[in-house]
Amino acid sequence: MRSVINISQAPKAVGPYSHAVKVGNLLFLSGQVGLDPATNALVEGGIREQTRQVMENLSVIIRESGFSLGDVVKTTCYLSDMNNFQAFNEEYAVYFGKILPARETVEISRLPKDGLVEVSLICCAG
User: Fold this and answer.
1) Cα distances (Å, whole numbers) of residue 66 to 14, 47, 107, 124
2) Helix (H) and strand (E) counts for the chain?
3) How far apart are CA 103 and CA 96, in angstroms?
4) How many beta carbons lie within 10 A of that of residue 104, not counting itself?
5) Minimal CA–CA distance to 6: which of 39, 37, 50?
6) How many CB atoms lie within 10 A of CB 48?
7) Are 60 and 7 in contact (CB under 8 A)?
8) What's the rounded Cα separation, in Å, for the pair 47 and 70?
9) Integer-rounded Cα radius of gyration of the chain
């Protein structure tokens, strides 16, 4: 059974997509950029501030969907500038501790709302 999940504490979608879709014990989260859920605008600052906001947005969706960060098995990370790779990694790592999900990180030319970072992920419970 498939269920669509939209969380009021997360930023509103900037396109025709859901925050997440749950299928069995899997949770697929749409990419999040560093939007403040209260204003739906990018947080001020640089890559560190946007990465923290992205991870906080994802954390809320994961938690409200009945999963935890420990259930994350795969992330896809997009950076608008690979020169931000080290700072991104430092902020990203704080959220996962020693159990790191599989991941790829790619540089792309532009992100929604001209964000610096976007992350999507997959969780598996059990």
Assistant:
1) 24, 29, 31, 11
2) 2, 6
3) 12
4) 9
5) 37
6) 16
7) yes
8) 24
9) 14
In what side-by-side order are the strands of the sheet with 72-79?
Answer: 2-5, 20-23, 26-32, 117-124, 72-79, 102-107
Smallest CA-to-CA distance from 91 within 107, 102, 79 is with 79
Task: Please give the chain's pLDDT, 126 residues, in tens.
Answer: 899 999 999 999 989 999 999 999 999 999 999 999 999 999 999 999 999 999 999 999 999 999 999 999 999 999 999 999 999 999 999 999 888 999 999 999 999 999 999 999 999 997
Sign of CA dihedral 64, 59, 81, 85: negative
Residue 37 DSSP one-character state? T
Identify the H or E element spanning 57.
helix 47-64
What angle do helix axes 85-94 and 47-64 make, rounded to 10 degrees?
Answer: 30
Chain-centre distance of CA 73, in angstroms?
A: 13
